[in-house]
Amino acid sequence: MWEALKRLYHRMGSPKWFYEISARWLPWFAIPAALCLIVGTVWGLAFAPADYQQGNSFRIIYIHVPAAILAQGAYAMMAIAGGIFLIWRMKMAAWVAAAIAPIGASFCFLALITGAIWGKPTWGTWWVWDARLTSMLLLLFLYFGVMALQKAMETDDTSAKAGAILSLVGLVNIPIIKYSVEWWNTLHQPATLKLTEESTMAMEMLIPLLIMIVGFYLLFATLIFMRTRNEVLWHERKKSWVKKLIEAEK
Amino acid sequence: MSLVTATIKRDLIIAARNPGEWLNPLMFFLMVLALFPLAVDPDPKFLSKIAAGVVWVAALLATLLSLDALFKADVEDGTLEQWLASGESLYAMALGKVFVHWCISGLPLTLVAPLLALMMNLPDDAYAALFFSLLLGTPILSLLGAVGAALTAGVRSGGLLLSLVILPLYIPILIFGASAVYHAGIGMEYAGQLGFLASFLCISMTLTPFAVAGALKLNLSR
Amino acid sequence: MSLVTATIKRDLIIAARNPGEWLNPLMFFLMVLALFPLAVDPDPKFLSKIAAGVVWVAALLATLLSLDALFKADVEDGTLEQWLASGESLYAMALGKVFVHWCISGLPLTLVAPLLALMMNLPDDAYAALFFSLLLGTPILSLLGAVGAALTAGVRSGGLLLSLVILPLYIPILIFGASAVYHAGIGMEYAGQLGFLASFLCISMTLTPFAVAGALKLNLSR
Amino acid sequence: MFFDSFAEFIAMGKHGFYVWLCYGITALVIIANILAPIRQRKKLFEQQARLQRREKKNASEA
Amino acid sequence: MTRSAPVDESKWFTTHCDLSAHDVSCERDDRILFENLSFTVKKGDLIQLAGPNGAGKTTLLRLMAGLNQDFDGEVRWYDENIQSCFQDYARQRLYIGHLSAIKKVLTPLENLRWFVSSWPEVSEDALWQALEEVTLAGYEDIPCQQLSAGQQRRVALARLLVTPTPLWILDEPFTALDKAGVAWLEALLALHVNRGGSVLITSHHALSDIPALRQIELGVQK
Amino acid sequence: MTRSAPVDESKWFTTHCDLSAHDVSCERDDRILFENLSFTVKKGDLIQLAGPNGAGKTTLLRLMAGLNQDFDGEVRWYDENIQSCFQDYARQRLYIGHLSAIKKVLTPLENLRWFVSSWPEVSEDALWQALEEVTLAGYEDIPCQQLSAGQQRRVALARLLVTPTPLWILDEPFTALDKAGVAWLEALLALHVNRGGSVLITSHHALSDIPALRQIELGVQK
Ligand code: HEM
Ligand SMILES: Nc1ncnc2c1ncn2[C@@H]1O[C@H](COP(=O)(O)OP(=O)(O)OP(=O)(O)O)[C@@H](O)[C@H]1O
Ligand SMILES: Nc1ncnc2c1ncn2[C@@H]1O[C@H](COP(=O)(O)OP(=O)(O)OP(=O)(O)O)[C@@H](O)[C@H]1O
Ligand SMILES: [Mg+2]
Ligand SMILES: [Mg+2]
To answer: Which of A35, C30, C104, D15 could potentially form a cystine with A57 if both were Cys, beta carbons 3.0 to 4.6 Å apart?
Structure first.
């Protein structure tokens, strides 16, 4: 078991192996992702009952919540991949981290924008400085910082290392940021505007949500594969296997 | 193609290759906006009262920070020296550089400010005023800022010095810009403030390039 | 004398010869404070309410701007390379540089902030809180900022990038610092916030130098 | 189907605008996320192919 | 790096050089660098400014190029003060200083294109040829930051091949060039002098092979 | 600039140099700079890295100095990887790169003092003597920004006279030196090699006079 894991780890370190295997894996993520997203969307939009309080605006939940969950998870994944790169010098990890950043940021943006749009009919305002919302906004800032830094560095190696260092520092800070924002919020904020509490959701509402969450995860995986494959090609472009690949394409 | 247009084109190409040049001021703008509710008070009513001022202060600071790099790279790599050696008009060069700077900082800022003002709960009536006051005001910020940037281009830790030189000059624009938005928000007339900004824009468009040209020459006569 | 103490001494001498290095952050602090009454509302009651937050925001921005130069000069003139070549601990070097930075930015700022808070009509009870929250908070700003400064030292227009990288990390300090002052102003307990700042200071004093050392190495391995 | 008619489905009570805006933006973001790596890949292939052609030409000249 | 693509020399330039220094004196920091220096640069002259470090070679070169007005005496172009006919003068001389004015994010071709934008008669073909001659064929489309120090200098020197000016003013042009590069540049200088051009140059390198060479020795440093 | 003040050479250093490269390979941007390079630097060796611009001389030098870890193969100091005995190694070699690590606001003496702070045994007197030998007597108390390029380089080179290390690693040390300076440095290198020291150097300058000289030719640029 341990040996098998170790072998997998070493193989994951091999870009060529990853490139070849990911081509075979991609459809196994992409097709279920599309299915889940389509089924979940249709179910959520057309078949799930309306919320008795919020009416139909509640259907936004089917993208809002999956996007919010993923945006947070993606940051942790990016930081961990960066850490693996820094500690074990595994280049694949750096490329995965670089691939995650824009995807995570766009999901973060989606969570924010769908939340804001949802806020208008429910709270009568696009934005309030609620703890949850604020910490999501700060997460977006963290993503921006990492991406801007990666862009600004001149060489591939420094860009990967700088991004990794910053995302690790950010990861350590996330709980602190979250704690401070929540503490701040409970002191300042009149508790009138709150996200719906852990409402006991009806089954017909919950199942499409779960399907959407699974769909978003699969989509996320697909996107990471696609981007990481590009990173592999770019960084290995002078290796003979990539050269052959490119020649064969013509 | 003259050296002026060639330089404008070149600077725009550089900005296009470094998206950070125009994205970073925008992100900074957003972040500074977020500081206030966090530090002061997130109550929507309160925010709606300070929104006009805070949005303007944030826009001003974002412009200020982006100015640091305006001439510094050109001084350090010798581009400016070549410009001066070419015998072409430094006045035109100054205007060209400011134009490019505004395109990559003031203009995007003006375009997104109304969106971000939503977060500050800006009164509905004030959006037009915010947009137009920024549209007239940000070019002035770029023009005046260019004077400071040119003066401090040769200085090592120029960023902070630049702020000190320029902030006092920015005060009138800040006052008129913010008050236009504030007055619009409480339903009052704000054409006067915009008029002031427009006329100030005309004056600074004609005068500041001279100052910029003079300051740039200073950096070189060593 | 070891290289660390020699460097601290040298940097302090440099700061003494360039008074701008420590005066500029102070003046910037003052100017940002002055912007708010002008842009928002000069009513003393209103000011007294926002004073805590605005003073903290201004202190944060002043620190941010002074960070840009922290490692840049050392990278560009080869000092850092020599440091690395010397084989001495980069961890110690990072701490030493941050210490000097705090001495010439955070410390003077902490000392004058109570004076300037007078202008913002800060409630009488809040002065002690302002002083102590800044005394504990500004070293954290310097420490976290050093990470950003080290990461962006090799980058051309680093100033803005640095802000983007660092601002989100500054939020908890801003929140606790400003709220300590605010609560003191309305006669409430603020030991909790100071406690948070103190413990955060301890954590960042032990951890950030590693990140700084790692980031500095990046700038050299070319 | 929860809705009685297609028009009702589009209207979503009074919240049609918000719901459809959300789903529209989401669709755009997802499509952009899918297209970006595909275009990146295409560009990479073209660029590298051009480079390899040039290298070959240089090698044969030398 | 041979002169593979000789330019059509009959058309190379229409005016000839007639630059003269009259009693030029200059001091920096209480120290007289040179005093009452007079000399002329005419058709076919190759003048090397020699002298130890800090003698004032760069200073003299810059004031001859019209980039520095902080001196006593007069520099004339065809009997007119260079400042009063600067536009004219600038089109007749090419100045390449220590700094190469290369933008790192742009390609060699884009950089060269900017350099010659004041000379609309220079064709795109000529630029490609020039880059080929400085052995940068194949590097035309690579950002300059990926080139070595010597290669970047070659991009700057490629201007010598495309801009039709009779007078070249060059400050340490041999820096960072390898042996082949040095030989090529020497040959180019000889060619330029032979076809009736003039060169004013500083270099610690011995330019012995060119018969037209004249040296001006600047004061010994103390 | 003669060797007026010879140091007590018997005490100059206690260890000798034993540095070896084993199958070192390095590539940058798709291009192999060198491959499977092996050589040793022993007592009395003077090794010059030669090759055209962009051949990778600086890169090789930096990795031999332990400043760059981005390569394949191994560099050893007395049969131990330099990274694992870095502290030790660092005290036995002196690295002077392109950048001189001179702080412009400090005087030559203060700069030199910082350089030697890791060697407490170096006396203040030795520093004065060293500055005198590089013909900077009288300039000890003048801020370095008022010195010319060559004079600043001399301040950096003065370290060769005071730090007792057997191995010198020098990147283009002749840059900006005038003829007297070049002769002096050549003599110093010969002396160092004669007394049992070792030198690893890059220079486009021909070091013909020193018998111990060995050249390592790096690949031709393409
Ligand atoms: C810009 C505004 C908003 C942001 C940034 C935001 C952010 C978040 C975040 C971070 C989560 C947590 C996901 C998780 O980890 O479980 C979440 C969940 C949720 N949000 Fe929002 N939200 C916003 C607006 C809204 C609005 C207006 C509503 C509805 C009135 C809403 C309803 C929900 C619900 C029902 C959940 C899932 C239940 C839960 O996990 O507690 N959100 N949102
Ligand atoms: N910005 C300045 N401020 C004050 N003095 C200066 C400045 N620049 C140069 N100098 C002084 O002018 C003198 C001449 O400098 P210059 O650069 O012309 O020398 P150089 O002959 O080109 O020397 P090198 O061979 O080292 O390039 C130097 O001694 C220097 O002290
Ligand atoms: N930061 C960098 N990123 C990418 N490539 C680099 C970098 N620095 C140098 N190179 C490449 O490495 C090669 C070798 O550079 P290096 O500076 O070692 O050359 P050199 O032999 O010292 O040349 P010179 O004689 O011009 O100083 C160059 O071709 C350059 O393109
Ligand atoms: Mg000179
Ligand atoms: Mg080199």
So the answer is: D15
DSSP-derived letter for residue E78 is T
Does the pTM surpass 0.95? The reply is: no
Asked if residue D42 is part of any domain, the answer here is yes
Closest residue of chain C to F68, computed from CA coordinates? C221
Chains in touch with E (3+ beta-carbon pairs under 8 Å) read B, F
The list of chain D residues with pLDDT below 70 reads 1, 11, 58, 61-62
Percent of chain C with pLDDT over 70: 97
Instruction: Please list the ranges in chain A whose pLDDT falls under 50.
Output: 191-192
pLDDT the model gives residue A197: 53
Q: Which atom of ligand 1 is nearest to the CA of A71?
A: 10
Instruction: Say whether pLDDT at F210 is over 80.
Output: no
Using the mean position of ligand 3's atoms as its centre, give its distance from the Cα of residue A39 in Å.
55
Q: How confident is the model at residue E118 (pLDDT cuts 50, 70, 90)?
A: confident
Q: Which residue of C has its CA nearest to F100?
A: C78
Per-residue model confidence (pLDDT) at position F4 = 43
Rounded distance, CA F41 to CA F47, Å? 8
In what helix (H) or strand (E) does residue F110 lie, and over which residues does it extend? helix F108-115
Residues with a CB atom less than 6 Å from ligand 3: A 155; C 222; E 146-150, 176; F 28-29, 33, 51, 53-59
Q: Which residue range(s) make up the domain with C24?
A: 3-217
C57 occurs within a structural domain: yes
- Is residue D6 in some structural domain? no
E93-96 sheet: strands from edge to edge:
E93-96, E167-171, E198-202, E46-50, E213-217
The most confident of A71-80, B118-127, B153-162, C22-31, by mean pLDDT: A71-80
Interface of C with A in 157-216 (CB under 8 A): 158, 161, 164-169, 171-172, 175-176, 179, 196, 200, 207-208, 211, 214-215
In chain D, the number of structural domains is 1
In whole numbers, what is the pLDDT of chain A averaged over residues?
A: 87
**Beta-carbon contacts below 8 Å between C and F:** 73
Q: What pLDDT does F220 receive?
A: 57
Count of the separate structural domains present in chain C: 1
**Structural domains of chain F ordered from first start:** 15-217 (3.40.50.300)
- Which stretch of B55-59, B216-220, D37-41 has the lowest confidence by average pLDDT? B216-220
**DSSP per residue over chain B, as a string?**
--HHHHHHHHHHHHHHH-THHHHHHHHHHHHHHHHHHHHT---HHHHHHHHHHHHHHHHHHHHHHHHTHHHHHHHHHTHHHHHHHHT--HHHHHHHHHHHHIIIIIHHHHHHHHHHHHHTT--GGGHHHHHHHHHHHHHHHHHHHHHHHHHHTT-TTHHHHHHHHHHHHHHHHHHHHHHHHHHHHTT---HHHHHHHHHHHHHHHHHHHHHHHHHHHHHH--
- Listed ranges B5-14, C41-50, E171-180; the one with the highest mean pLDDT: B5-14
- Residues listed for chain D: 62
Residue D14 in any domain: the answer is: no
Does D33 reside within a domain? yes
Give chain E's contact residues with F (Cβ, < 8 Å): 29, 51-55, 146-151, 153-154, 175-182, 204, 221
- Which mutation among E29, E35, E202, E215 tests ligand 2's pocket best, with the greatest number of atoms within 8 A of CB? E29
- What range defines the domain where residue D41 resides? 25-62
* Per-residue pLDDT tens digits for F129-168: 999 999 888 888 888 888 888 889 999 999 999 988 999 9
Query: How many CB pairs below 8 Å do chains A and C form together?
Result: 82
Q: What is the pLDDT of residues A19-31, one digit of tens each?
A: 988 999 999 999 9
Residue B191 lies inside a defined structural domain of this protein: yes
Residue F95 to residues A226, C180, F130, F199: CA-CA distances in angstroms? 45, 50, 18, 10
Q: Classify residue C28: in a domain, yes or no.
A: yes
Taking CA–CA distances from C38, the nearest residue in chain B reads B175
